[in-house]
TrEMBL record:
This is Mannose-6-phosphate isomerase-like protein (Cupin superfamily). It comes from the Bacteria. Pfam families: FdtA. Transmembrane segments: none annotated.
């Protein structure tokens, strides 16, 4: 099993100004992206009462960005370490390693951009919590 960094916030460059607006950039060959992006997807119009995610991965690393609205992301590592992240600045992303069980709750206006290290493959998803704990449990 590969070692991955813990979930953590990544700040993207924020170029521009209030008079003209801003642009943020992440390039594969440069920081702050920790992997080559193989897939991009976004979620939107998610009711505030819905909790999405509820999975981990075998291989896929992700960076999640709230390009609009607010997203509360909870990550849990197999050793029980739980972190709560509030994403609401479009120049800040959250790195989520495959070894993190994660859930997301959205404000009504939230748009989440996800940058993923792997193309979509259903067999990469760990949707059973106990299987996640077994897969990613610290080795003695």
């Amino acid at each position: 099993m590969a070692d991955y960094p813990a979930p953590h916030l990544i700040e993207f460059p924020k170029l521009g100004g209030p008079g003209i607006g801003y642009i943020s950039v992440g390039e594969n060959a440069k920081d702050p992206l920790p992997f080559a992006v193989q897939r991009v997807f976004w979620t939107y119009y998610t009711p505030e009462s819905i909790v999405r995610g509820r999975h981990a991965h075998h291989r896929t690393e992700q960076v999640l960005v709230a390009v609009a609205g607010r997203i509360i992301v909870t990550t849990e590592m197999a050793d029980g370490d739980i972190q709560l992240f509030r994403l609401e600045d479009p120049n800040v992303g959250l790195y989520v390693p495959p070894s993190a069980w994660h859930t997301m709750q959205y404000s009504h206006t939230a748009v989440q951009l996800a940058l993923a290290s792997q193309p979509y493959a259903e067999d990469d998803y760990i949707r059973d919590y106990e299987a996640f704990r077994q897969q990613w449990a610290p080795k003695a």
